[in-house]
Design brief:
The chain has 905 residues and is α+β, with helices and mostly antiparallel strands.
Length: 905
């Protein structure tokens, strides 16, 4: 038989050593037994796969291991370099290995075959060898040696074999098994995937009819994907290790616990989040590292590995704080954490990787917030690593955690466009979920419309319904481009343009404004008028705003009129009002100018709870004196005294048509109507001497106001009662004017109203002059000495209308005093002619009918009924008069039997 490896000489040397030193035999037996029972238990496929990987690596071919059974024989074949003489020496030496590189070329690891077989055949393309317990036992007998208690050292003696390996393979190991192969094959299948990961020279493992194939795909950042079946791992190489991470749905997933793989599994337990496969010196059984081995160098490059991972996954691969699972684990954890803290791998908000120890993280950060802050905070971590689940990992590598309060502090003093701040506020809004978060942002910078940036939203004001304005120095007005809902949640107050313009601080600014400071004046004008556009009912003190007139001079707004204002043509030539420059109107618009007091129509003065006539209104003192008590509110049209006397008809139309003044005309007791009655003149007469078309009280005595809005200004015209001595005198004068043609009813009513005004105390009799003539009921104007005031109803039948002056019976005496005219009861004496029938009212049917016809109550008591009642009168009236009734001085009532009804009834 061919013996290419000279196994016979090798056997002779070993047997000679055993014969000369039985102790050596026992040592070899004990060593092999120890390795079989402890060092290489359960490592058969692992050790053979390591040898196969080394063979493939030396040959430069893809490693392929195939395992199958034939009867009780287990066959393990591999590709790569065939067995050589150095390999044979290593296999038979137990303590030595021919390996100068690689991970497992025929070292003591081959002893693992003894765990399952005592008859081992190593077939190879360059020649094979056989190890046999039976043959070795016979050699011991032939040499006169006794088998040691530990057993026969099978792997010390080799015999040649000419059996070739399976086709397509460089080597094949055949093991005659002690036990059933089925459980062993199942265990091999379970190991196959790990072995393909650990031994990168192997690409394929076949376990009986089960095929395992590892495909490597290079990806970006120097990493690769390893795919075995339907499972994928992410892999990264460093100088001294390969780091492998399982993937789920395309995302790297940390492992909970593993062991150091050097390159196959050892007993060094690790708590690292990635599988590490390292080139590190191990003890002969490859279960523990050799003492003094520099295992810390395995961690070198871990930071680069993190940087190669997808950004969102990186923090998950920082070792979490906790107890080390082994001494090696402790060394690696410490070194890895230190490297992770000093290597740029942490995703930054601006897209660049950051060194964790110099980075900051804002918990809960969002993509929108990162987009805003990234360019101005280069050390800010990306939102993908800012969630709470990554907090412990970032803390472990010294990433500085900042809260909202710290963020606000970091932004203090920075300068940005208002739109940038608006984007920041919108991005921060989702983080402000409660009052605590809002309080943390109390010092958040806020840009103002005047260009300043202030600290804290609580002191700022947001405009509601205003266009962009600047220069609001009297309030901390947020720049419109920066105004965001978050500011309101953080304490900013909302204010409408009207509220800003009503701020007392603006009044102070106006009072202190230096009109010679052109820049300050221009800015304030622009700001106020921009806010005032479209506003109504602003405070009157805004009228002090300086505005340029047509002469180029500055004047207070309330001293100016718009160029096309209707009031311009109504005022007298000596009016103190100026006209706004056309350029100002073109720039800001008429509405804004009117809102701050520039005149269009008549201005209105308003004050709550006024205390006196101090509102600069014409003749205000006289009106105030006419009031019985101070008004609760003063609302009055001003500058009525500036109207040209010839323009009052147009002025009245303007007052009626203006919304702000129309209602004031309806208040007869108010200043506006009062002043118009006394001072407005149309056609030479005061407005108070005219009557409205709808008021017939003094028809014929007072002229009708010929104006389209006469009824609308009725409260500014003559009253329907005599409310003053002046008006009572006017009525008396008009009654005495023969050119006036009032009806008898108007004459009687006018007399009554004058008399009632005196009797009620509204008018003092001493304030009235005696009229030169008086108006009789016939309409005639007569001498007072000829007139008689009818003061008893029954005198109506004896005093003719040519001399009769009538008011009412109750006011007749007062009227007589006013007119200095005698009364009928004083100046006429009457006697009843003839004797009548004495009766009572309730006994006279015609009396009852007459009262019913007149709608009056039936009198009670005695009545004297005459067929024809006649009285003889003397005094102011002489002669016999037939009357319907008469009451004598003794109070007896005499009635004609017709009871005042027409004949025939």
């Amino acid at each position: 038989m061919n013996d290419p490896f000279d196994t016979e000489a090798l056997r002779a040397g070993v047997v000679s050593a055993w014969t000369s030193s039985p102790t050596r035999l026992r040592e070899d037996a004990a060593t092999e037994a120890d390795l079989v029972r402890a060092g290489y238990r359960d490592r058969l496929l692992t050790e053979l796969a390591q040898n196969a990987a080394d063979a493939a690596d030396r040959a430069g071919v893809p490693g392929h291991v195939k395992v199958w059974c034939v009867g009780d024989a287990l066959h393990v074949a591999n590709t790569g370099a065939p067995l050589d003489i150095e390999g044979v020496h290593a296999l038979t030496a137990l303590r030595a290995s021919a390996k100068t590189s690689g991970v497992g070329r025929f070292g003591v690891g081959f002893t693992a075959v003894r765990t399952v077989a005592s008859e081992i055949e190593f077939r190879s393309a360059a020649g094979g060898i056989v190890f046999s317990a039976e043959r070795t036992g016979q050699v011991l007998i032939d040499a006169g040696l006794t088998a040691p208690d530990a057993g026969i050292p099978v792997l010390r003696l080799a015999w040649p074999t000419n059996e070739a390996p399976a086709e397509g393979f460089a080597s094949e190991i055949v093991l005659k098994l002690h036990h059933d192969a089925a459980p062993m094959l199942d265990a091999f299948r379970a190991e196959a995937v790990d072995l393909l990961l650990e031994l990168d020279s192997l690409t394929t493992i076949d376990i009986d009819d089960t095929h395992f194939d590892c495909r490597t795909t290079d990806i970006e950042n120097g990493a690769a994907h390893l795919t075995i079946g339907d499972r994928t791992w992410w892999q990264f190489r460093t100088d001294h290790a390969r780091w492998v991470v399982p993937m789920s749905d395309g995302v790297p997933v940390p492992v909970d616990a593993d062991v150091l793989r050097a390159p196959t599994r050892s007993d060094e337990e690790l708590s690292l989040p990635a599988i590490v496969i390292a080139d590190v010196a191990m003890q002969p059984d490859r279960r523990r590292t050799l003492p003094g081995t520099p295992v810390e160098r395995i961690a070198d490059g871990y930071g680069r590995m993190l940087a190669a991972l997808p950004a969102a996954s990186r923090p998950s691969f920082v070792p979490r704080p906790g107890f080390a699972r082994s001494e090696v684990d402790g060394v690696l954890r410490e070194r890895i954490v230190r490297e992770c803290a000093s290597t740029p791998w942490l995703p930054g908000a601006d897209g660049e990787d950051l060194v964790p120890s110099r980075a900051v993280v804002l918990p809960g950060s969002t993509d929108e917030l990162a987009e805003v802050l990234g360019p101005v905070m280069p050390d800010l971590a990306a939102p993908s690593v800012s969630g709470p689940r990554h907090g412990p990992a970032l803390a472990a590598v010294d990433v500085h955690r900042i809260g909202l309060a710290r963020l606000a502090d970091m932004l203090s003093g920075t300068s940005h466009e208002p739109l940038w701040w608006h984007r920041l506020y919108d991005a921060l809004a989702p983080l402000v979920t409660d009052g605590v978060a809002a309080e943390e942002l109390a010092a958040l910078p806020v840009p103002l419309s005047d260009g300043r940036t202030v600290t804290g939203p609580r002191t700022t004001v947001l405009t509601v319904g205003a266009r962009a304005v600047g220069g609001v120095h009297w309030a901390r007005l947020v720049h419109p481009d920066a105004a965001a809902p978050l500011l309101t949640r953080l304490g900013a107050t909302e204010a409408s343009p009207a509220e800003l313009l009503s701020d007392p601080a603006l009044q102070v600014v106006l009072d202190d404004l230096d009109w010679d400071d052109d820049d300050a004046v221009d800015e304030l004008i622009a700001t106020v008028l921009s806010l005032a556009d479209g506003q109504r009912e602003l405070p009157s003190w805004l009228g002090s705003l300086p505005i340029e007139d047509t002469d180029g001079e500055l004047r207070a707004a309330d001293e100016l009129l718009l160029p096309d204002a209707p009031l311009v043509r109504l005022l007298s030539s000596d009016s103190p009002f100026g006209v706004v420059a056309t350029s100002v109107v073109d720039r800001f618009g008429a509405d804004a100018l009117r809102a701050v007091g520039v005149g269009w129509g008549f201005g209105v003065v308003t004050e709550d709870l006024p205390t006196g006539p101090d509102h600069d209104l014409a003749d205000e003192g006289a009106w105030w004196a006419s009031l019985r008590e101070d008004p609760d509110v003063l609302i009055a049209v001003r500058d009525l005294d500036l109207v040209d006397d010839e323009r009052w008809p147009d002025a009245l139309s303007q007052l009626v048509e203006e919304r702000t003044t129309r209602d004031l005309l309806a208040d007869r007791g108010g200043y506006t109507a009062w002043w118009l009655r006394r001072h407005a003149v149309i056609d030479g007469h005061r407005l108070g001497h005219y009557r409205a078309p709808s008021d017939l009280t003094f028809a014929g005595l007072l002229d009708l106001l010929d104006h389209p809005h006469a009824d609308d200004v009725a409260s500014a015209l003559a009253p329907s009662v005599c409310d003053s001595a002046e008006f009572a005198s006017l009525i008396l004068d008009r009654l005495a004017d023969p050119a006036r043609t009032p009806t008898p009813a108007v004459v009687a009513r006018a007399h009554r109203l004058v008399a009632e005004a005196v009797s009620s105390g509204v008018v003092d009799l001493d304030d009235l002059d005696l009229p030169p003539r008086v108006r009789a009921m016939s309409g005639a104007v007569i001498d007072p000495t000829d007139a008689v005031v009818v003061d008893r109803p029954w005198f109506v039948g004896v005093v003719t209308s040519d001399v009769a002056v009538l008011s009412s019976m109750e006011s007749a005496a007062t009227l007589a005093s006013i007119l200095d005219v005698r009364t009928a009861s004083e100046s006429i004496r009457a006697d009843v002619v003839g004797v009548g029938r004495v009766s009572s009212w309730d006994r006279e049917p015609d009396a009852v009918l007459a009262c019913a016809a007149l709608g009056s109550e039936l009198p009670s008591g005695q009545v004297v009924v005459h067929r024809e009642l006649t009285v003889r009168v003397t005094g102011a009236v002489e002669g016999m008069r037939r009357v319907a009734s008469w009451v004598t001085d003794d109070g007896i009532v005499h009635c004609d039997e017709s009871w005042g009804r027409p004949r025939g009834q």
